[in-house]
């Protein structure tokens, strides 16, 4: 299985081109880093690959086909700010079960405590909330995970716990990971290949 962007071009409205002629591919089981200076378009590229936005030029292909237009997406995106990724009026149990139903063992692997399930998002810390967003993105139908500064805001221990769990799951299920980060050291530690948006 292969996720690829071919000849991607994107700009916001009539603004300047953010990305042009970008080719990128991630294979199943591969952990690839994406680094580059701030504002270069890393998050934009992640959003295109996850199908959140449509490229103005080029195409995104999953095994040679367009991403499915509806239903649970096999390409999941987790970004830096979990509070922007959840419905503030839903309790965590409902948020977690939006795409699939992680069982207790799965929740425990990501350090999600049972007593958090009945809380609202604002009643959790950023790290606690991000654990839910990661769990939600790792349903059985997920083939690729795009982790866009997924643990940047978190302390070192939480960062390590989340990555430990994600890497275990990725290995077990041969997921492809695209790790978007400012932190060159994190990318070098996790990834077998690094793409630099210069
Ligand atoms: N919704 C938007 N409307 C207009 N311009 C945008 C929008 N989102 C991003 N941009 C611009 O697109 C460019 C690329 O942004 P993007 O967030 O993809 O970069 P990045 O490489 O991920 O940056 P960072 O490392 O700082 O997160 C930036 O110049 C940004 O200002």
UniProtKB/TrEMBL annotation:
- A GO molecular-function descriptor: ATP hydrolysis activity
**What does the record list as GO biological process?**
transmembrane transport
**One Pfam family from the record:** ABC_tran
- Annotated ranges, domain ABC transporter: 1-198
What SUPFAM superfamilies does UniProt report for this protein, alphabetically? P-loop containing nucleoside triphosphate hydrolases
- Keyword set includes Zinc-finger: no
For this protein, the record's InterPro entries field holds: AAA+_ATPase, ABC_transp_ATP-bind, ABC_transporter-like_ATP-bd, ABC_transporter-like_CS, P-loop_NTPase
- Entry keywords, A to Z: ATP-binding, Nucleotide-binding, Transport
**Presence of keyword Transport:** yes
Q: Which family does it belong to?
A: Belongs to the ABC transporter superfamily.
Protein name (record): ABC transporter ATP-binding protein
The organism encoding this protein is Paenibacillus flagellatus
């Amino acid at each position: 299985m292969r996720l690829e962007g071919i000849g991607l071009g994107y700009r916001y409205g009539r603004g300047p081109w953010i990305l042009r002629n970008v080719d990128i591919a991630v294979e199943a089981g591969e952990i690839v880093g994406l680094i580059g200076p701030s504002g270069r378009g890393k998050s934009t590229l992640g959003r295109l690959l996850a199908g959140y936005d449509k490229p103005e030029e080029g195409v995104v292909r999953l095994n040679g086909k367009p991403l499915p237009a509806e239903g649970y997406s096999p390409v999941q995106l987790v970004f830096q700010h979990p509070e922007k990724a959840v419905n503030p009026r839903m309790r965590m149990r409902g948020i977690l079960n939006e795409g699939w139903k992680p069982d207790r063992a799965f929740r425990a692997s990501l350090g999600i405590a049972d007593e958090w399930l009945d809380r609202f998002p604002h009643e959790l810390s950023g790290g606690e909330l991000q654990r839910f967003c990661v769990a939600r993105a790792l349903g059985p139908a997920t083939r690729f995970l795009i982790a866009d500064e997924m643990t940047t805001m978190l302390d070192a221990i939480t960062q390590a716990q989340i990555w430990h769990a994600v890497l275990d799951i990725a290995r077990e299920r041969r997921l492809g990971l695209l790790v978007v980060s400012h932190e060159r050291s994190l990318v070098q530690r996790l990834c077998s290949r690094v793409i630099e948006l210069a």
